[in-house]
């Protein structure tokens, strides 16, 4: 089974507020593949589909989206996550000027 991510994780990955996730996924044609248990359970989405949609978003700085997708992929490895955060900061500094 492929990795699944929650609505909140989609928001973090895409760099949008949780309220913007529905619009992003609707535009990309991505539908939930499941739901967390309980009344307050979040929708679950296929991580690979979401990562591809985030990379392909028009009008966005693609390198930041790729870095965010990589951060999600290595979320359980603190050393890799720290390296990715450093790269994101460097990219942001270059983008600012």
Helix/strand order: EHHEEHHH
Question: Could you tell me the radius of gyration in angstroms?
Answer: 14 Å
How many DSSP helices?
A: 5
Q: Low-confidence segments, ≥5 residues, pLDDT <50?
A: none
Percentage of helical residues? 55-70%
State the domain count: 1
* Nearest-integer average pLDDT: 81
How far is the first residue's CA from the last residue's CA?
43 Å
Strand content: 5-15%
What can you see in these coordinates?
- The chain has 97 residues and is mostly helical.
- It has one domain (4-96).
- Helices cover 59% and strands 9% of the residues.
- It is built from 5 helices and 3 strands; from the N terminus they run E-H-H-E-E-H-H-H.
- Helix 1 crosses helix 4, helix 3 (47-56) runs antiparallel to helix 4 and helix 4 (62-73) runs antiparallel to helix 5.
- It is globular, with a radius of gyration of 14 Å.
- The mean pLDDT is 81.
